[in-house]
Input
Amino acid sequence: MMINKIGYSNFLNNVAEDIDIPPGKYQQAVDRYESVGRWLEDGSYLGSDGAPDIYPQGSFQLGTVVRPIRAGAEADFDIDLVCELPINKDSTSAYMVKKMIGDRLNDHKRYRDMRDDEGKRCWTIIYAEQDGIGFHLDVLPSVPDRRYFSDTSIAITDRQGGFYQWSASDPRGYGKWFNEKNQAAFEQVQLQQRRSIMSKAPTIYLSVDKVPDQLVRTPLQRAIQIMKRHRDVKFNGVQAAKYAPISMIVTTLAAYLYQNETDVYAALAAIVSKLHGHAGLVENRSIELKLSSLDLIRRMSDGTWYIGNPVNGEENFADRWHEDNHARARAFFLWIDALKKDLVDVIAENRLDTARNQFKKVLGASAVSAHLGLLSLTEVAASPVKVTIENPARPWKP
Output
């Protein structure tokens, strides 16, 4: 007896939808960041050659947003917003750019009252909860930095103690790269999902073409959301969170390894199984040639680790993995092992009640409980409904 694959994949999809930002809250978040953007655009900034460019980044841009877990409970959504000032990087400083954006937000009474203490990179505006859901809007000050990487790369402000410095970033370039990995699956599911979203939120979206791309979810995006929720539950707590895998690593590796699987379980299983095959790197053991040839996770000769930003090879997402006796590397592979046992290998579990209790434990009872009815046992595991994707790109293709 095995858990029915069709029901299980639908279960995972529904859990991911449950922890995703609802269409109404998505539109509310857009309205709020556009209001903040208009206020910033109307500001005056020393050395600026025009109005700032305001745009979303991170999981909100990529369609992989999940409601985070903090102190064992679901917390406010985090929305990341870039504020790119058209100022020559060499004619200003990270401190000055950070200060100008903070001062402009401070000039608005409401934003001043809602603004949190200065963050390492961002200014954060905290919106009070409505219907039990709140938002943190992180505004990231930056300037263009096109000299080394791409025509979309930026320099972002980075405060280290009392000192300010520049760090390189390229959220638009990364978003383009991710969308290319996701494009074939997106084209197959978009119409059906737009119709479904419109039917659930008819007062928000009056027609199918009004539903934004950012609300359409492919099996890749749903798999990433499930992985991030499992991570957040697994590493809940201040000490554990210190070594939790960062979202950029999870998202980048998943996108590289996705091969246009047509349901959530198949995508999750393929990604997690390949990542599990890299675990030998922790002990400096060799891994399968077909995995090492992908060159996704590298153990360097000096003991450091490398997971490159696909749009800026000089940025290493694993630059701290060697610290504390490789604590972050070990935590990553222990998490992958748990993810495999909890959500991939469980397909062969022969006690459904045990599996149901396990899902509540590793994904959160509030997200899981309403969807447990989709799970059932079957003599032969059926295959989920497939979506045909013609000529899929290889996951390692640049």
Q: What stands out?
A: Residues 380-387, 392-398 have pLDDT under 50 and may be disordered. The two ends are 42 Å apart (CA to CA).
